[in-house]
diguanylate cyclase
Amino acid sequence: MRLVVVFCLIATLCALAFGYYVSQARRHVGADYTALVTDVVRAQQDPAALRITLDSLIDSQDLIHLEQIHDLLWRIPRRIESIQRQLRRSELAPTRYADLVEELTYVASRLPALEAAVDAAAEEGLDEPASEAMLSLGMEVEEGLAWAYSELNEQLHQASAEQRLLMERLTLAVAVLLLLLLLAVGAVMLMLLHLYRQRETMRLQSRTDELTGLSNRRWLREMAEQAFDRWRRHGAPLSLILLDLDHFKRINDDFGHPLGDAVLVAFARALEREVRRIDTVARMGGEEFAILMPDSDMAGAQHLAERILRATRAMPLPGPAADRRLTVSIGVVEVADETGFDRLYSRADQLLYQAKKSGRDRVVSDHDAEDTEWQDHEDDTRG
């Protein structure tokens, strides 16, 4: 579950990062050329204004048009200088605008001559040859500027389109990389989940009896050590029930081991129905089982043992063994002064042996053993 949450968190972060990248890419695509394109568009007004002024000068020969040309001659070289400076700073390859810069440089070199022709026309009059020279130079400057700015504008739009295409491809590449990252993370998560499940399976197998699904001897011992620690610290009662199916070998001999295994599984389920959630039910091996009962004294353990005794008698056997009756012998002990599980188990095993020796299908506890010893002592005394 935690791995799924982590993967979802990583996927969400990747989606947010990609969304932010796309929004920023769209916002800034073409930004390198925006200012330059704006200046070129404004500069394109200069040759247009120069053409209009020259045409107006031819038609009306008004001296005010010479002042307008003076204003343009002051503005045009500054425009050219600004555009050339921005071109050098831009991402545009110099080979793409070299001819245009050369043309603008040539136009800029002709501006002083045009300015001198304008001054001469103002002094000598618009009907003099100076006027014709001014008009010729003006047309030359206008044509050079118009061609250079038009070509430069086209180059910039083309470069902006190429940049947009590049950004789209880069966006696609980033999306693919993020997808691959998510796939890699997902694969790692699946591998970790697989390893985790394998570890849990191995851990479960190390503590579980393969046939019945109950705890095994190893896990019962570990739980017993923990229960003993609580008993030493807090003095809480702790009991152990040891059970052994009576004449189980006959079932295996008469009906085969598969049916015997089915009986063991059925008995295990019967035990699980009778015990508390805090109790540990384990198969010790063969037809021997054990129940570790924390926080339970002898009375509680005996009561559970009696219930199991009755439930076992009433338990139907599967298949061809349906006419047989299953019984169990039980030994019950409560922790007294034991130092560990081995001593407790040994006492329970001795009581279980007494139950078998006494005729099976019965419960023998510490109290029963004490009463039997006392009765034997009385008999010896009377004898």
